[in-house]
Amino acid sequence: ERQIFVTRHGESQDNLTGRIGGDASLSPKGRRFSKALARFVKERRVTFALDLARRRIQEEKESKDPLRDSDDEDQAADELEEHKTEKKVRATAEAISNSQFTIWTSMLKRSMETAQSFDPDEYDIKHIRFLNEINSGSREGMTYEEIKSQFPNEFQARQDNKLYYRYPGMGGESYIDVIHRLQSMIIELERMSQSCLIITHRVVLRILLSYLLEWSQTDTPHMLVPIHTVYELRPKPYGVELTTWCYDE
Ligand code: G3H
Region labeled Disordered — which residues (predicted)? Predict the structure, then answer.
């Protein structure tokens, strides 16, 4: 069992002015989110490790002695048994939470800076270009209002078919293009067995969540995925358990 955390970068300077694309740094609030994220992930890892350790040890006990009834024992023996179990739980939980934990960010500043509050000795941090935000081609650095007033037909075309609409200009991408460039990341994510945190951007986050949670591709470009929200996923044999956490300062 493992935890997969997915989030967008902290608030950037461009988020404050509503500019798309670009390579801005975090705002002061974005930097505070980065610190809170590091504390939060650590806390959730410990809770997860304790839960898992308790379950594993309980299952182990049941498989060894399925018919044992604690009423049969005297109280002192029960207490000793409980104490031993709790010690074993803590040791197992410590081993689980010390196991490798990977952090992937994109190669854009706002995403890499969001990972800066994580201790590099404790985490395996990788910056991956495939996780970069959709390339808005010649519309990089513009606000939606500017696109709407200067290029109304283009703006409308994107509204009408956001999934297939490709931004004009060098490197411009559509959602479908981003889905294709994420294929190898998704294969890697499914292959690895350790827990991880992915710090990325709105479009990439929508695509990853849709894939992991098997949501419809048509709805993907319209999903509400605000910044400072962390999606914690736990893959289970029957599907994926999702918990959504909001940072509120
Ligand atoms: O910078 C790009 C935006 O985050 C993309 O969001 O696909 O909803 O326009 P959108």
Answer: 59-91
Mean pLDDT of 152-168: 98
Task: Note if 188 is an active site residue.
Answer: no
Comparing CA positions, the residue from 151, 123, 126 lying closest to residue 136 is 151
Handedness of CA 86, 87, 93, 97 (dihedral sign): positive
**pLDDT mean across residues, the chain:** 93
Report the SS3 class of residue 198. Answer: strand
Distance CA 198, CA 111 (A): 9
Residue nearest atom 1 in ligand 1 by C-alpha distance:
20
Catalytic residue, candidates 139, 201, 206, 228: 201
Give the model's confidence band at 107: pLDDT under 50 very low, under 70 low, under 90 confident, else very high. very high
What is the token pair recorded at 201?
A: 């951007």
Distance CA 177, CA 181 (A): 6
Q: For the stretch 111-146, what's the b/e string if a residue is b when 16 or more beta carbons lie within 10 angstroms of its beta carbon? A: bbbbbebbeeeebebebbebbbbbbbeebbebeeee
- pTM of the full predicted structure? 0.90
Q: What ipTM, to 2 d.p.?
A: 0.90
Q: Are strands 101-105 and 124-127 parallel, antiparallel or unpaired?
A: parallel
Quick check: is 135 catalytic?
no
The span from the CA of 57 to the CA of 28, in Å, is 44
229-236, strands of its sheet edge to edge: 124-127, 101-105, 195-200, 4-8, 229-236, 239-246
Q: Is 8 a catalytic residue?
A: yes
